[in-house]
Amino acid sequence: MAQETDVLVIGAGIVGLSTAYAITRAAPGTRVTVLEKESGPSRHQTGRNSGVIHSGIYYRPGSLKARFAAEGAAEMVKFCAEHRIPHEVTGKLILATERSELPRLHALVQRGRENGIPVHELGPSQIAEYEPHVRGLAAIHVGTTGICDFGAVSERLAQLAQDAGARIRYGAEVRVIGRRTGGRADRRAPEIAVRTADGEVVRARALVNCAGLHCDRVARLAGDDPGMRIVPFRGEYYELVRDRQDLVRGLVYPVPDPAFPFLGVHLTRGIEGSVHLGPNAVPALAREGYDWRTVRPAELAGTLAYPGSWRIARRHWRYGTGELHRSLSKRAFTDAVRRLLPEVSAEDLIPAPAGVRAQAVLPDGTLVDDFLFAESPGMVHVLNAPSPAATASLPIGREVARRAVAALGAVRV
Length: 413
Hints:
31% helix; globular; D-Amino Acid Oxidase, Chain A, domain 2; 11 helices; 3 domains; FAD/NAD(P)-binding domain; 9-stranded mixed beta sheet
């Protein structure tokens, strides 16, 4: 027998759960159901990131990333404090190690100020006051950056949504999505039907696609052309052995290359005290390909057949070759770490779990840099929500909730 709901959310990552919670607050009494194929929340991008609460310094002024990150960082700290979730506002250093990086570092100072983020420029001696073992020509200190446990945040959002009446169904992989194209006399009648792998059918008036690594596939299941494809990039990490963790006090980042949405190998002291090094960015051979051994032929064939994938390769082959070298050579990875932390050696590094980034790519090979939403009648698709999506999950959830409630035609958020 089919279940009925008002809003059906696909995906119980941090964005999907934040959206479900925001709908229950914006439109009390709205029936919300979340379907998640895994056995618990945030098993992929949310649960496999570095746990950094980003300040928003990197993002183009006026972009959704800049707006949501600055707003979301403050909200995330407040949320963690209110719900007793481990967190700390540590600040971070962005470090220039070569003279060629100094103009980009100064540009980041200007961008931070345009985004309303307090930044302080540091010389070599001042760098040592923050990080005695780090070496650089110059740096900026961003005081609003922090760390937290985003998995715990997700679990709390799930509980808050359920307490407000939302239903979360784990182990429910979506296989079929049908939608009624004709009008109905009863506007409150379900127009969308979803069938899961175990045969359950859920009927809804509106659907929100927060499927992350599978968001483009879900959009196509719903009959919408997303105009992009998710190309998965694996981020590989090491961590410092326990007796070398005192080499890093907080967060240390290189100056990023503005041509790429990746931040480069950086140093992150996590909320539990371990120090993560990475990530790099290499093509994954499956959407959930957390190592080179995980290959899903159909997904890999889809990536290889997509014109945007080849255009990325042609445009950025030098960058990609360096990332692959660091993936296959621990010595090369160590050399990237040593640019920031000269005292470290390959013996100080041990492998840590990898993550996969759901990178939206346009047919012309453009890497979508900002958050990307798309809408059709009764549907809202979140098609690009990489970092800083976890940081910005609370305001993103409200934005998606506003669109979902508008799709219901019920109330304005």
